[in-house]
Every structure is written in C-alpha cells, then in structure tokens.
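Homework help board

Subject: predicted structure for assignment chain

Our instructor gave us this sequence and asked us to write out the predicted structure in token form, then describe one feature. I got the tokens but I'm not sure how to describe them. Can anyone check?
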Amino acid sequence: MTGLRYVYAVCRPLGAPLQADLTGVAGDPPRLLTHHGLIAVVSHVPERDFSEEALRGHLEDLDWLAATARSHQQVVDALTAVTTPLPLRLATVFRDDSGVRVMMERQEDHFRRTLDRLTGRVEWGVKVYVAPEPEPVAATPSPARPASGRDYLQQRRRQSRAREDTWQRAERFAARLHSTLRAHAEDARLHPPQNSTLSAAGAGENVLNAAYLVPRARSEEFVEIVDRTKGEESGIRVELTGPWAAYSFVEQGAERESGEPEEAT
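My token output:
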C-alpha cells in the first residue's frame, strides 16, 4: 500500500506481538520500522487526508479529529500492553520510510533517554470533582403566604455558604490525595482543571486533574489507594483512568520537533 507514513510511537523491541487484527488510522494495520535498535510504529495513510494542506482543513472537522484520535489511541494502547511506548503527537506524518528514519536519527539520543526513564512505567490519571448540585424539586403549592424577600435572601446565602464549604472541603481533600499519590509515584504532573463543558454530563466541577508515573509492579497498590478514597467525602467524586502510555511525562519540545509539518512534504 502506498501513501504517507503515520507514526504513532517509538519504542524498543516488543516483548510480545501486537494483536493480529489491530488497525490504525485510515484502517491500515500498524507495522514496525526498525532503526538502530529502536522501533517506529507506523502505518500508511492517504495523502489526500494527511498532506500538510489537508491536515489544516481537517483541524476544523471535529468528527474527523475524534475518529483519528480514537484510532491513534487504539494503537498506543495496544503497544502499552506489550512494551513501553514513547507516544508521538497526533498526526505525526512523513513522506516515506526514509523520512521516518531521518527523524529517528535526529532524535535518537532523546528517544533513548526518555525510554530509559519510562520503561516499566505507566501513567495513571486522577481527577477530583465537586458533584453538581441536584436539580431543584418543584415545591408543592401551598396556601401559605410566600416567603419574604428577606427570607429569600437568607436562603440564598445559606446555599452559597454550603456550596463554598463543599468547595473548600474538596480543595483540602484534593491536596491531601495528591500528596499521598505523589509519594507512591515516581513523578507527577498537575494539569489545569478540566472545563466542565468538556466533562461527561453530570461530572461536576473539576478540582484536581493530575497524572502520575507509576511502575507497573506498583500499579495495583496505587489503584487500591485511590479506590479507598472514593466515597470518603460527601459531594466529592474521585475518578481514576489508566493505565496509559506516559503522555504527560514526554518532553514536549522534542515531541513537537519530531512532527514538524515540513517533514511531511
């Protein structure tokens, strides 16, 4: 099959084969391109969709981006099950195998250092949410006189104080949890709180959005620590995701360099 080369990740030789029915972006199965003992995991993609000009247009197509991201992640997840991948950014594309090898040559020292640091480790994500306020229940009609403006304002103040108390509890809880998890991880990253409009419906307001680099051998212990905190505080929800490839712990500058658009033309 002809086409451009889409690169998902760089890794060392796999400890086990990838699943036989795995497909990548544009439906093409990934293959392994070896260079100096490192492996680039690549597949073919059509130039009509992945040339520099086409990619600029696709940035406006959220459905296309979401489908591409799912296929990309599917390959990285499969790699994470059999090795430690160094994932590259979405839509890292080169003209041919030679272009991929040039990139690997230029970044070889960076790839080796990063893989040395990440091998045998995975990323776990932990988020803490303040649960959304329940929908108000319609009051039963009553012949009694309506509450006064003063009563209404007092009720609103009580609701505001209760909400503020919950936020303060959530922030203290998140700080304690992060400190505990940081002590059981080799590294940690605090990301900006996730916008509530991007969260799942009913998730609530995000207070903690963190990633932790954890050795595979200690992952079960890490998960148990997180699980014990769930339900510990009323009105506060803890979400654990992973294990992932260590996206949060890859040096971003080198990752961008490996996918410069000029390489794809």
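Reply (TA_rk): Your tokens look well-formed. For the description, you could write something like this. Residues 136-140, 253-265 have pLDDT under 50 and may be disordered. That's the kind of observation they're looking for.
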